[in-house]
Design brief:
The complex is a heterotrimer of chains A (277), B (341) and C (530). By secondary structure, chain B is an all-alpha fold. Helix content of chain B is 75%, strand content 0%. The longest helix of chain B has 39 residues. Chain B is globular. With 530 residues, chain C is an alpha+beta fold. Chain C starts with a helix and ends with a strand. Classes of the chains: A mainly alpha (277), B mainly alpha (341), C alpha+beta (530). The interface between A and B is large, with 50 and 53 residues.
Amino acid sequence: MKRAAYILVRNPLSLTGVILITLVVFGALFADFIAPFPEHRGAVVDFANFNKPPEWPYLFGTDLVGRDLFSRILYAYRISLLLGVVVLAIAVPVGVTIGLVAGYIGGWTEYVLMRITDVFLSIPPLVLAMSMMGLLEPTLTNGMLAVTAMWWPWYTRLVYNLTRSEKEEGYVLAAEVIGASKPHIIFREILPNCVPSIVTKMTLDLGFVILIASSLSFLGLGVQPPTPDLGSMVADGAKYLPDSWWLTVFPGLAILVAVFGFNLLGDALRDILGVDQ
Amino acid sequence: MPPVVRLLAKRLGTSLIVLVGVSMLIFTIARVIPGDPARIALGPNATAEQVEALRERLHLDEALPIQYGYFLRDLSRGDLGISLYTNRPVTADIAQFLPATLELIVVAGLMMILIGLPLGVIAARYRGSWADHAVRIFTLLGVSAPSFVWAVILMLIFAFYLPLFPIAGRIADSYAIASVTGFLTIDTLIAGNLAAFGNAAWHIVLPAFALSLSGIGQAARLTRSNMVETYDKPFIEMARSYGFPERRIARRFAFRPSLIPSLTIIGLDFAAMLGNAFLVEAVFAWPGLSRYGVAVILRKDLNAIVGTVLIISAMFLLVNIIVDLLIAFINPRIRYSQRAS
Amino acid sequence: MNRISKSLAAALLAATTLATAPALAETVLRLDEVPVGELDPGKATDYADSILMFNIYDTLVIPAQGGPGYVPHLAESFEADGNDFVFKLRQDVKFQSGNPLTADDVVFSFERMKALGQGLSFLFKNVDGIEKVDDATVRFKLSQPYSPFVASLVRLPIVDKKLVMDNLGEGDGEMKDWGQAFLSANGAGTGAYKVVSHNPQEETVMAKNADYFLGVAEVAPDTVRFRYGLEAATVRTLIAQGEHDISSQWLPPEVLKSLAADGAQMLKETGGGAFYIKMNTAKPPLDDVNCRLALASAYDYASGLKMVAVTDDVAQGSPSTGGVPVGMYGAKPASDAMNRDLEKAKEHLAACKYKPEDFNLEISWIGEVPIEERFALLMQANFAELGIKSEIRKLPWALFTEQVTKPENTPNISQIFANAVTGDPDTLLYPMYHSSAAGTWQSPEYLKDEAVDAALEKGRAETSDEGRQAAYTALNDRLMEIAPSIYAYDRQSIFAASNRVKVPALSDPAKAFGLDGFGFTFRLMEMTGE
């Protein structure tokens, strides 16, 4: 624990990551108190103040129906984080279990499971999610579903490779010799040794899920208005470049800040947990 | 059988199985959706009889496995069906839009190698210095924003505020270039029209750079970490004690072994680029597969969706096979079976 | 490495200088619209298609310039004969292929339109058949009195029969594919512009037809590049940089505002249509007239108009006065503008059999028309003041047209820009409100009202101006009473244009045409040489 704190403080980049993510999470959780115009998260129109460049009290300017962009970005963070957490909460257990089973049991099970994984991995992730989103109704739930569908195979592949090397280790062989059951070996012996890699990847991925989700909504395949969403803000604002630059630049930077923060944090975790790349 | 041929045969075989899987997956997704593709295709004023006739022609009334059977039969003749959106064969549509996308990806891939690897080498050689930190921040930023954000930011700065680059398209209207390869940068050279080549190259810089930024970041990070690992090996110390210049050590002893994992990443990044190209094309009005892809997805144009995804996946697999062969070529000692995907 | 980057820099420099070099003597007009550009006269429907049709093909009549009515064009003269209409053709017209225009071509064009049954063929539902009287005379046989018939002929492009028959594609029967494969990629008309190349997703290039039967002025553009699917930001910059000439009408008002501030001219097309907010009368809660009236009174008309204002005196809309746009038969005067009245809205809502807390309105907007999202938000905010909850849904156009074919799938509220495709009120109002036309993109109201049906039928059967005036006045009154739609504003299309082109038909009311899209007749445009 001390070592962890030391690594975090010693490295300015890691510290930046911690600060950025704290700010993002804090802003999202307490948006109701921080946002100058909390009601602007929804369907509010204020044509007296529309399309305003950044000026007090509109820190990041207003959008085309007069809503405060800063407030909307805070609420958009809330949706993005929720989406990231839910996607990983589903994708990781599924992917990890399949990877463990395929890696440890081997034979036909391995062949079939890994070929299915390959199928998902051979469709470029964004294209797979796009096809699914285009065919389903564009809602938050379906967005999560589509991103989850493209995410689990990466955990399968990671854990599969780890399992294959772990299963030759002495402690696994020892467990087998004393007659431990397969589930016991898989989940009680091998899994704990994969945890550091999984946790590191999850931290990095939280950023990338936000990134992919914003890409989907950039293409018009994400959550629907008036729910604030960073990707669709960028897409909608891009029509008004270069004059109304704040409509695109601030939501774009908001994505950058969040993903950058999770990347720095992931790197720091990697150092702390001693995970190889 | 020479090992390279065996490797090739094995990889092709696996890829084929995977492709069949891909086609089943995307085919199923495309058919279980709500909405009547025939009605959408015929537009607002079609009669019920016309819709029914089209449904029949598309075999939409049959069971799913039978529909898939028809699909495979047509596919074996190189026929992906008619796009209901453009009223043309899907293969013709893809043939028309794919080259522009490929050109963008190839140029972005070159940028990734020509910028990413040197950055990684610099960071490794001067690790711990300000240069190392600068490269790290740059590469992290590169992977931390979706390519459409970079596209918008680059466009805003280098096309709107400083009008150094064009904001849209592949080439100025005034050039009429015969299509040979579909890559304008190559076709213009074939035509011997240097001005047109310059114009085409000038158009591709910004979109390709926006597309390559995340790849540059990953290539640089990976090269750096591999080289740092190699630097810690005893043979580097030995080379130093023999008086080899640092430059030579970096290039010869540290860089070369780290090239192999970097190549692997490039293969994987190609997949990301195929997806991200959709976003960058949308920003720069690049006439590639993106607009077509998004349009057919929004219109539930079944044949076109299945065809587009299938072709993209096939290209992805192909690139990875090429990367595998390249690696085998660079380092024959690699155990062919070791690399799984 | 160094050498390569140097020569690349040199090439780039060469490119920059070349790109800014002065234009050739040949004049090029560049404009854009939304994809897809449909070149087949039997399938053309939307604005982009219309521009293609009006330039590559000709029609028997065209709208009169600077006033109401229609004048003979390919026809020399025409007359009504009972329900029928007889047309005498000009003898001096040649197709772009060199083939002379005869009655056979007119018969073929009409029969092809009917046989394909797509595009705007529904305009000719009341025409039983066509008959060649002699080489220069045709007779259209109508099943009933139908006064808008002459107007609908602006939507019957005349096709070169011989050329098409020489290029029939695969298909069953005598006519095989009716030349669909050929006509989707090639022109076969008499028009002032020929197709040079056509890519429905990207661009149609057209060139002046030197042999046009009316001749084409020297100042008209030599080449026209008609591009599809340019982004608003792209168009905005291209026009500012001198690389684009006329924008589509779909630019958001803010972008038009910036362009106007940069010195671009604002071209205008007035009349013919309106922005309708349509309510699904076939499903609760909007099957109750009081709920509809409540929404119509709660909608903030003034804010809606403010949203589409470009400058102080230019806007993409003008105040609406009812179901019939100002200027058409039966319309109320411009002074009778619709207004918001929240008190009245509350009264209506109290009389409605559904309670506001019991329903959740689905407000849809068409994905291709971004401004509709703002109207959706405006409505959501307006209706919320009555305590009505709502949900906004973006629908791509293709999906929207599919969903409205079933009343239960049709959103409670849809937003439609509608116009009279022939310039006649019948083609605007009949497809929207007649009970037999329910369930298309124009009629997501699913309105079934006998009084409305009667007025619409009277409107198309009456031949006198007074008779039609009376019919559409009655219709308008009834439409106000039962509020199937919110009549948001009368539409005015605004196009930003560079100063390299003059378009009298879109800038001088005395030279305007009463038909949407006809202002884009390229032969009447003037390149300024700037």
